[in-house]
Amino acid sequence: MRIGILGSGLMGGKLGTLFARAGHEVVFSYARSERKLKRLARQVKGNARADTPADAAHDADALLLAVHWLRMDDVLKQAGDLSGKVIITCCLPMNADDTALVVGRTSSGAEELAKKIRRGKVVSAFGTVPSEVFFGVFAARRRANRPSMAYCGDDDAAKNVTATLIRDVGFDPVDAGPLRIARYLEPFTLLMGQLAYEGDGGPEFAYRFERFEE
Ligand SMILES: NC(=O)c1ccc[n+]([C@@H]2O[C@H](COP(=O)([O-])OP(=O)(O)OC[C@H]3O[C@@H](n4cnc5c(N)ncnc54)[C@H](OP(=O)(O)O)[C@@H]3O)[C@@H](O)[C@H]2O)c1
After folding, report:
1. For the chain, which end, N or C, has fewer CB atoms within 10 Å of the first or last residue's CB respectively?
2. What is the pTM of this model?
3. How far is Cα 199 from Cα 197, in angstroms, rounded to an integer?
């Protein structure tokens, strides 16, 4: 697939690199310097290049949206018309100093984004995992016991594209349901972040769901 990266920082840089290593064609866009985008593309040593958000969006089979919530309107304006596009967002609706969600309870960042993009096919994915783990998960992707990743959205075709990319990075995709489930996933990511960055010695968190049959 051709994947446009809108926001080439910690999340966009790493995921774009792994999408390219998995065989996709990647266009890195939206950073503060063009040199950084070109360096990222060069380091991939594969099918990747740097360009503008509008070019990244043009002909893309999927777009990864990975910017701070405050940059959302700017990157969308630069990307242009995204109607009909698969837009995978890992963005959390955080305030300027990243201390709290600015959308919650009755909506989510993903749903607010879907309202902004006319006829866009928004899927929420990748945001539940700190960017530090992606390379390790990719390196271990052939192991039987792969970590799961929940994603949600309202468009089945867009969700299939997303599930493929989640699998390509090394996770088992778990369809968590419609886009409104992002109301629960987004606060959950804060818990994961808290454990990853502020916990004593890193994340030591395990959970398990068991379904009891009669
Ligand atoms: N990092 C994580 O582990 C993580 C986990 C879950 C969810 N998220 C969410 O994912 C999204 C992206 O997070 P991130 O950590 O990848 O952020 P980040 O590293 O700050 O990346 C944001 C990108 O936007 C670019 N940017 C910022 N201001 C710009 C401007 N004025 N003009 C052009 N480009 C600009 C940055 O450019 P530069 O590259 O030049 O800085 C960078 O490439 C956020 O919504 C965050 O809440 C992150």
Report:
1. C
2. 0.94
3. 6
